Amino acid sequence: MEKAIEATHRITSQEIDTLSSARLNLIKENSHLREIISKKDNEITDLSNPLPPL
Question: What single string gives the DSSP state of each residue in 1-54?
Fold first, then answer.
């Protein structure tokens, strides 16, 4: 019974590690995409507010 518990614990720990790694990758990707969107938003704002003529 103890070996079964250890095996279950090992499998569960591996699954948690896998999910944690996937979560971290998604957080990084999300951050990158937010950065891209922010840059695009700034470009749109710049185009919407042209400089006054000299």
Answer: -HHHHHHHHHHHHHHHHHHHHHHHHHHHHHHHHHHHHHHHHHHHHHHHSPPPP-
